[in-house]
């Protein structure tokens, strides 16, 4: 949540809604501008993966995989939702 708040307060994203599932997340968000050389969703993916790896190393010994493993899907699925001044209606439909 801190990362989403940070990206939002810096003007990179607007989050309209989200759902936390047992093994993945769903977001209804808007990418407003680039975060340096990458899109905000890439920044979110990288920071989340690094946080998971840090937690695994600190709290779940022994970690039996190398640091080169992939903790996020590089080919995430984006579904574009078209709404014009009606974000609440789209959230209710989802």
What report would you give on this structure?
The protein is α+β, with helices and mostly antiparallel strands and 94 residues long. The protein has one domain (2-93). Helices cover 37% and strands 16% of the residues. It has helices at residues 2-9, 40-59, 87-93; strands at residues 13-20, 25-31. The protein is globular and about 45 Å long. The two termini are 21 Å apart.
Quick recap:
It contains three helices and two strands; from the N terminus they run αββαα. By secondary structure, the protein is of the alpha+beta class. It has a two-stranded antiparallel sheet.
List the uncertain runs.
none
Helix count? 3
Spatial strand arrangement across the major sheet: 1-2
The tally of domains stands at: 1
- Kindly name the structural category: alpha+beta
What is the global morphology? globular
Q: Element order, helices and strands? A: HEEHH
Radius of gyration: 15 Å
Helix content: 25-40%
Oligomeric form: single chain
Separation, N- and C-terminal Cα atoms: 21 Å
> Which sheet architecture does the biggest sheet show?
2 strands, antiparallel
Total strand segments: 2
The overall average pLDDT, rounded, is: 77
Beta-strand percentage? 15-25%
From the structure above, extract its key features.
single chain, 94 residues, alpha+beta, two-stranded antiparallel ribbon, 16% strand
Secondary structure layout plus pairing:
Layout: H1 2-9, E1 13-20, E2 25-31, H2 40-59, H3 87-93
